[in-house]
Here is the input.
Amino acid sequence: MLPLALIGSGAGAASALLMATIASRSPLALFLVLLAPLPIMIAALGWTHWTALFAALAAAAALAIAFGEPLWIPIYLVGAGLPAWWLGYLTLLARGEPDGSIEWYPVGRLLLWCTGIATVIVVIVMWNIRIDEQQFQTALKLALDRVAKEYGKSAPDFTQMDVRRVAEMIASFVPPATAAMITFTFALNLYVAGRVAGLSGRLKRPWPDLSALRFPRLAPALFAIALVAWFMPGSLGMAGAIASGAFIMAYAMLGFAVLHEITRNLGIRPLVLAGAYFVVMAAVWPLFFMTMLGLADAIFDFRKSNTAGRPPAVT
Here is the structure.
């Protein structure tokens, strides 16, 4: 018990340090904060979920003591600690089959949990951090005026209408984009944690074939509901936008899984995959094509012929 407590304390300290970098307000701090769930996940996958839970609670307490603010406890637990513990717990969840085999918790459902967690986090943040529309537009007008002064006469003449349109566009874009980013980072942290635990020989479940990733049959319906809610007014529309952003990222990752599978027998596979990743990282908007590929696979099952000789993926 004592070794597990020591491991949990170490993982909690590492996670707390990563989260605490937000106080520096540097550009690197955002990247480090997004890695805060990683030590908790490694503790869960490499040891037990109890170790991870202890690490999360220890990290929350350490942050509250270090900053002298009890509010850090719910901030950390909701934003990093408890989601990381829960994902680690689900990853090692398994049940025995009558034939003696073990069915592990499906990767597709883990990714959907990342989607749900990201949605909840961003909804809570948007609900608690409300920026007055007029204040937002005023601040944006000042920023645009600074740009105009910096570039001189070649800069466009920003009118109040321009500022309002830009403010509305940013306000509608930021929440779903944030949910998409958090979905990706939780999935990436879980992937890295699994790799670390696997390389150390402590990962209890076999490494899954990620190209066989599939979502439950209910997932497209949930995505459709989120998209419909996006066009609703008020808080419902905001929640729908946030959930839609998270689903867009999840289905884009599914699209990459499809691309990995259908190019498996191509001689130019490395070139195709490298080109796809480069284009998405360089321009971002092609991510929507990967989302459409993921959605289309749910209908047409592009990977059926490639996986004919393999056991079916559990969804």
